[in-house]
Design brief:
- This protein has 259 residues and is α/β, with parallel strands linked by helices.
- The protein folds into 2 domains: 3-99 and 169-258, P-loop containing nucleotide triphosphate hydrolases (Rossmann fold, 3-Layer(aba) Sandwich); 110-166, no CATH class.
- 34% of the residues lie in helices and 24% in strands.
- It has 8 helices and 10 strands.
- A hairpin with a 2-residue loop joins strand 4 (83-88) and strand 5.
- It is globular, with a radius of gyration of 18 Å.
- Residues 1-24 have low confidence and may be disordered.
Length: 259
């Protein structure tokens, strides 16, 4: 067994259990046609075409500055394209979409709010009950009344994930969410994300620099370069995956050549 496989096993044994209850509503579909985005005359995305099926797990890799984060900002409605059309579930995206949530590398918790209050930051009816349920889903129900400052980096990112999931999004956008974590915590978070996605079936778009992470988690891996998709590869390895699976190794080599 490889070191990566061993640490995956360790991480999986430590990950909190996730109830295997299927959700009735699948993730949403996204369709981008001829999407361009320019900044100061520089084209970051150049007539990009992309169709994402409901409940698909898509990983996007590429070098720094290739437009990965810009793509996520367009999908959230935080930014608007310079050209082209972007539809979610067949409807043009106009402003922030209520069924879309984004998770960043930095947990971005409010230090003056307790954990449960950070998760239920949007408030609304029954917000505390729903926040506690989300914390239970990520294995932190016993830390609900703690302050963020006493949590580890991995625990803070779990809280951020609970905050993203508390509203039951149909599209979860992840911008290098585990990049700042140590190796074992990162694997534990990857396992948690995979289990939650398998149960909830929301659509995922994951931005990562880690080719192994992309191949281990996603259904489909895109290589973004010069503002366009230069490689669109399905991941055919069965789940749960091992890093020494021949299909995973083959895909990793192909991705490294394409980046």
């Amino acid at each position: 067994m490889s070191l990566y496989s061993l640490t995956r096993t360790l991480g999986r044994s430590e990950a909190p259990p996730v109830a295997k209850v299927a959700r009735t509503t699948p993730g949403l579909a996204a369709h981008l046609a001829g999407i361009s985005k320019t900044f100061g005359g520089r084209a970051v995305l150049d007539r990009l075409d992309l169709a994402i099926r409901p409940s698909q797990f898509v990983a996007v890799i590429g070098r720094s500055g290739c437009g990965k984060s810009t793509l996520l900002r367009l999908l959230t409605g935080l930014d608007t394209p310079t050209g082209g059309h972007l539809n979610l579930d067949g409807q043009p995206l106009a402003g922030l979409a209520p069924t879309v949530r984004m998770l960043f590398q930095d947990a971005r918790l409010l230090p003056w709010q307790r954990v449960v209050d950070n998760v239920g930051i949007a408030r609304g009816p029954d917000w505390r009950e729903r926040a506690l349920k989300a914390l239970d889903d990520v294995g932190l129900s016993d830390r609900a009344n703690d302050w963020p400052a006493v949590l580890s980096g991995g625990q803070r990112q779990r809280v951020a994930l609970a905050r993203a999931l508390v509203s039951r999004p149909k599209l979860l956008l992840l911008d290098e969410p585990f990049g700042a974590l140590d190796a074992l915590t990162r694997i534990e978070m990857q396992n948690l994300l995979a289990d939650l996605w398998h149960r909830e079936r929301f659509t995922v778009v994951l931005i990562t620099h880690d080719v192994v992470e992309a191949a281990m988690l996603a259904d489909r891996v895109l290589v973004l370069r010069d503002g366009q998709i230069r490689m669109d590869a399905p991941v055919n390895a069965p789940r749960p995956r091992e890093s020494d699976d021949p299909e995973v190794l083959r895909l990793e080599k192909a991705l490294l050549k394409a980046v």
